Amino acid sequence: MALYRLRRFVGEIAELVDTAPNEADLIARGSDALRRLVAVDDWLPDAYAQPAPERYQQFLLYADARERFSVVSFVWGPGQRTPIHDHTVWGLIGVLRGAERAVSYRRDADGTLHEHGDEITLERGTVDAVSPTIGDIHRVSNAYDDRVSISIHVYGANIGAVHRSVYPLDAPPKPFVSGYSNDTLPNLWNLGKDSVES
Ligand code: FE
Fold first, then answer.
1. What is the pTM for the complete model shown?
2. How many angstroms is it from 87 CA to the middle of ligand 1?
3. Which class in CATH covers the domain with range 4-176?
4. Contact criterion met (CB below 8 Å) for 1 and 43
């Protein structure tokens, strides 16, 4: 298990959170790092790649001690999708397995929510970004009805504890806190057993 790839990624994000001059720079360089992470599918432990029949799973893989960022694996069963939702912080989405579809939403001046642009398909290896400054409301689904898709996300907070909203099209926004599907995390720090390979 090449967990060192995830360890290297969280090191890169920690460095960026410390040094990036602004959000645009953080998103650009963080996207490069995430693209490298999802380019190779040999490191995600099976425990954090399991779908559930009821709903998509959100497994915490790493949380910064100061909650400046968190890394999660999103596991989509066949045909599963999110409601329309926001994040309130920057977020990067990289597809590790399968593919996803995403639709963005924007608010009119009168507050009405409407689709913004076409639905996009995120193929394996591609990275997308959200934030309150570049567009924060979307709906995401598994592009496949017959197999699991998995994406790796990094957010600018402990995302499972953030107070966010879902946006039913025919009702007022509803507050939610997502939590996580797991109680234990992968051990990134067993350096003797998981050395960086050339
Ligand atoms: Fe999202």
1. 0.95
2. 6
3. mainly beta
4. yes
